[in-house]
Amino acid sequence: MTDPGTRVLAILGVVAMLGILVLLLRWTFATGRDQPGLRLTDPDDPTGLGLLEEVSRVPTEAAAHVLRSRLHAAGVRATVARGPDLYRILVFPADLGTAKLVLRGSAPE
């Protein structure tokens, strides 16, 4: 038979271990407040570009396809989006700097 003091210590030990486990799990799986949240776009917004960034705007479809071909030749994935009165050339954010250099005519080596 165990005395009441041992039972109390056992219960306190279990509660302490559960508390430590909860704190460790919260620290491991919690989202930090200093981290930026996801940039969610409105699916009904016609100006939303999703993951793509605009690198250039041109007035004609032919000009847009020429610029897209130039980017493709430099190894940059690009697409053309039609706006109300212009065409936009869109690239992924990681390719934005390279795309600007290519369209300026000073392609990186």
Give a description of the structure:
It is a single chain. The protein is an alpha+beta fold. It has two domains: 1-33; 53-104, Alpha-Beta Plaits, CATH 3.30.70. Helices cover 44% and strands 15% of the residues. The protein contains three helices and three strands, in the order H-E-H-E-E-H. Strands 1-3-2 form a three-stranded antiparallel β-sheet, covered by helices on one side. The relative contact order is 0.12. The model has no long low-confidence stretch (mean pLDDT 84).
Largest sheet: 3 strands, antiparallel
Principal-axis shape equals rod-shaped
Helix and strand sequence = HEHEEH
In CATH, the homologous superfamily of the largest domain goes by the name Hypothetical protein rpa1041
Q: Over all CA atoms, what is the radius of gyration?
A: 28 Å
Total of DSSP H or I helical runs spanning 4+ residues: 3
- Could you tell me the CATH topology label of the largest domain: Alpha-Beta Plaits
Given the helix and strand composition, which structural class is it? Answer: alpha+beta
Low-confidence stretches: none
Q: What is the rounded distance between the termini?
A: 82 Å
Question: Which strand order does the major sheet show?
Answer: 1-3-2
Helix content: 40-55%
The strand count comes to: 3
CATH arch. level architecture of the largest domain: 2-Layer Sandwich
CATH top level class name of the largest domain: Alpha Beta
Percent of residues in beta strands? 5-15%
Number of domains: 2
Average pLDDT metric: 84
